[in-house]
User: Fold this.
Amino acid sequence: MKKIILSLSICVLFSSSLFPQVVNDFEGGDEDSYTSDCWEFNGVFFDDSNSIGTYAMSTGPLTDDAGVYSIITPWVDIPTNGVVSFKTGLINSNFGSDENNAKELSVFLLSEDSFTPLLLDEKYTTSELQDKSIQIPTTGLHRLQFVWYGKGSSNRAVLDDLSISGELSSDPCEEDITDSDGDTVPDDEDDYPDDPNKAYDNFYPGENSFNTLAYEDLWPSQGDYDFNDLVVDYRFNEITNANNAVVEIVAVFYVRAVGGSFDNGFAIQFDDLLPSDIAFVNGQAITGNLYNIDANGTEANQTKAVIPVFDSAENVINRVGGSMYNTIPTNGTGISDTITMVIGLSSPKAFVGYAPYNPFLIKNQQRNIEVHLADKVPTDLIDVELLGTNNDDSNPGLGKYYKNVNNLPWALDVASTFEYPIENADIIDAYLNFELWAQSNGTNFTDWYTNTTSEYRNSALIFQ
Amino acid sequence: MKTNVFKVLSFTVFTFLSAVSCEMPEDTTSDVDTNIPQKFTDIEANSDFNWSTAKNYTIHIAGVPLGSGEKRQFLVKTEDDKVIRKMNVAISEDFSINIRVQSKIETLILSWANFEKEITLGANNTINFTFLELGNL
Assistant:
């Protein structure tokens, strides 16, 4: 008992110094004697079979597959010029200091919200017990973590007579944490502090930004490649829970342009989700009978989860006169309605695919004709007889979809709000580095769609 | 007189012809380089070309044996401090993140609590990362 009391002393005179010390000589003999004071032990044990007092802390064998062993001290309020001192050595025979048998000790300084590597990171060069003393380069509340690892021979490491300058302190992490919904994510980090099923917003491309999908709609025939037959901005938010699994997806769409006469629809296939993975969908802009939609908001008769967004762009655009919509500058600019869809998952999913998933255009109210991004797989409802006809060179056996014989696509996913070409302006005339990007296989001009310099675009051919 | 006139005329014609023949041959090629696409359909792309201007990455993060297992917010950020992924993890956990970023982005910042480290994005879509290399074992 006397030994235990001594080991837990927090204000012990250290040598001739008057500074308080947190000490541990491990003579309590088991973890229970220390865990109430917030010592933590990972894979180590109290060893009374050595010659360092009655007990010392000991690791298991420091071999290749043993992983690591560690102890973490309680919180200590460390003063200026603080020092940590201890005894350490190796036990068991056959110690070898060569690389194949190296044993190593690292000592870290942990703080409330960070860690500072390293106070010590060195290999044992002898099996003899050594006295170590390390200056602590900071002050305030910290914990120290001792980590052992090694390979080769089965030596164990021992630690004893640990002493740290400073006073034992309570855990600062526990003082100010408020977690209203009890999901383990503190309120100040929780985007949904009152909802235990949600923790984080994860926006793509960003909370306040959009990317753009730009389509040609004459597939399988080629068009004029102004990529403005349907232009849709998108933003997705994958809402995750405290276990980092997706529980809900919020999708926002905005139709920027309709540069054609076809009455096109628009939908998304989630290649990594089944229809049964979807619990509900809110916010679709559907007025007609293009889709056969099940009760959970997914399209019927599909193997994968297909979620219609709108059956006609006319549902959301507000024309200002003239032909086309926002592709002929002299016709003025219309403002569209924003579509916000909420897609609830029936159970949390670790991965739902990469946004924008697999979005596609439905051509002129013909449900069996879809236009997808290059190499994206069509849905079950497409007329597969159309693949590889006219200008299309799709070859499902090769995984080639929606590309012509020169591997050119009918749709682009632009990682920015794309300022698309005006009516009938070929994209390579509007964006002067586009072909350099494509012909370099994406190596050059990855920012071809930007306005970095006057050499990037012909503004007269871009709808603004 | 006729002879002199003839000589002068002959000299003039000879000189003119000589001057013309000394000129560099006129470039008979068109101003248009036929190798440069003049329209979209002239482009020939590789069969594996990624037509998107964003790339997918999977980052495998190896935990380090630090801390006592408490979970903190882990962030993936761009250099301009835009957060693109939030997670709730312990620094000691092994975990993976699937992210999609603009192809033009070359660097991401990973942070756990106040500890931050940069990673460089390259051609490989899979990145192995650890906050801390423990020794050289």
User: Anything to note?
Assistant: Chain B is about 15% helix and 35% strand.
